[in-house]
Amino acid sequence: MTTLLILGIATPALADAPVVTAAQVARDGPAWRFDVTLSHPDTGWDHYADGWRVEDADGTILGTRALLHPHVNEQPFTRSLGNVAVPTNLSVVFIRTKCAVDGWSKDTVSVALPD
Asked: Which of 6, 20, 12, 30 is CA-nearest to residue 76?
């Protein structure tokens, strides 16, 4: 697995938006596997990071990882998403996070794909 440099982290528009603290990506046959580490002030079932997705520059969703429970005592935490089909012409994708209260973040984090 290749550890990637995150090219840019935008300041979250909402104070409680989940923050991508690391991302790893590797080829998995013809598709890609993403391991994304998030930090979020989860308080329990009422307010927690409940997903992230991989998008292209136009916002087309390439894959979505649902997070099905709070991670109050596990911060930051890493979850994976495999079998993501990424068009061969892309060298950068974007991670967008989601929380149960604020919804999908307006900001994304760019991640370079290894050659």
From this structure: 20
